[in-house]
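Q: My labmate handed me this sequence with no annotations at all. I'd like to see what the chain might look like in three dimensions before we decide whether it's worth expressing. Could you predict it?
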Amino acid sequence: MEEGQYVDPINVTDPSVGLSGSLGSVLDLVDNNVVLAAVDAVMDGHHQPQHQPSHEIGNVVSSLDANTSFLPKELPIVEEDVRVIESPELKAEEADHPSVKKIIQFTLPAIGVWLCSPVLSMIDTASVGMLAGTAQQAALNPAVSVTDYGAILVAFMYTATTNLIAGSVEKDREEGKDVQKRTTETLITALRLALLIGVVFGTTLSSFAPKFLSMLIGNDTLDPTVFSSALRYVRIRCLGMPAAVVIGTAQSACLGMKDVRSPLYVLAAAAGINLIGDLLLVGNSNPWLGGASGAAWATVFSQWGAMAMFLKWLTTKAKAKEVSASAGLDIDVESDYVKAPARGVLASKYKPSSILKLSSLRKNKTTNKFLPFLVPVTTTSIGRVSGYLTMSHVASSALGTLDMAAHQIAISIFCCLSPLVDALNTVAQSFVPSIFARPKSKQRALALRKTSLNFAKVGAMAGLLIVTLVTCGVPLLSRLFTTDPRVLSRVKNAIPGIAIFLGFDGLMSIGEGTLLGHKDLAFLRNSYATFFFLVPAFMLRLKRKALKGIPVGLGTMWGTFSAYEVVRTVLWLSRVAYLQRKTEREASKIEEEQGIGATL
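A: Here is what I predict for the chain of 600 residues:
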């Protein structure tokens, strides 16, 4: 019998084992535990099992007919006829790809991570509006746009960290080392690089803030009060950029380790700090401490506080129960023992202050692994944002006041609903890279295929759910923003386009996340570079029609935008299918070469 298999003693009643049929009557008379004890005794060569009283077995034997045969001294086992129960090791292959259930369980908290940034912005907007007045609230619009859209220039760090950490975790797992050498080295390098990039980005953004704000607001309509408040907001926010980039990188690293709990703990605390800071500072009359500036200071304090908590979390071991490796237990994200795998991952070698050792980046080979993500991911991010910016431009310059108001309501609801499916992009980046990093084989190709299919199922289900929410929820939610029936009717016209866009967004997100997991960066870069020109071109055609007096409404604009989403989804999924076929061909070729080599 092969190692790792054992015979189920209860099934010795099967006639194929070669025992007397009367043994079945024994099983009918006694409890299974007694029979197990008897079988164990015979197989071990003992007359009495230590854990069962002798009189119970004696009663069983005395109840049999005189001609009834009993177990022989040696139990004959025909290996091919005995039902075998596989040990946990033999079932390991079944767990080499995420199931639909696991993807959903991982996605739900990931949605919370995606919602953290909109929640922080919403806290600032609400606090300033209630405590500082309309002028200060108006300043937030261009100021937040500059800081948030400017942050896409450092988004490559987040994608790179998730992919590199996931690959490092897989390689450490394959080597079976207790210390995650590759993972810790990649993580500390990512954090140090994030701090350096944050300092450079914050300094640059602060220097060019007046120029960016002038371009966004428009020189001919500048309100000195709004402009000065917006400029102060941006420059104060720049002080927190190093911490913001470190937080985003640490959060991405946690997702690469399939840990969605750690970011939620830290970011929830950051939101609390931000809210308290807004309540204390926004109402202050000092222009550098209150109003929009107060909201900026509250955000900066929350970012540095969150960074300190994150570093402490990563460098402090959790007090978890010890689990013996010999028990054969597989500790994953859902384990009762370790619910936050990222906690203490750096504790064996690093302290929170280790992030300040930036000089080590020059001689660290791991640093170079982040560079290939710079251009493709930045291009991808800019291409993704260009469509939203062009829609806002068309609505404000050609569609009129009512359509502008309706578009603002539509885009606000859209931004609240999109994280429900956009989180799948991050989840795919958490699972796919670790599978992709495995040695090329048919098992790897099969795992990638099953992973893609399961993600597609979840994406389709998320799309159907979001379409239902849009269809039923937008008409109701829009009434919370305005009571003007003319504006509400225009919002209603945008519902079909929004529903189509978000209905496909789940499949688009899993497709894009899978391509990032495959490191198909050149394809994404070229695709989004093309979209960067095509999408605005189609949108500007609508503007020209509207200026010529041709009826163009909000429904037409969102319908055009949804067509872009459909094209993008089909393109992403087609590319994933192509890469899957390529992976399977490579695996078959390697297997054939190994077979030929074995025969020589």
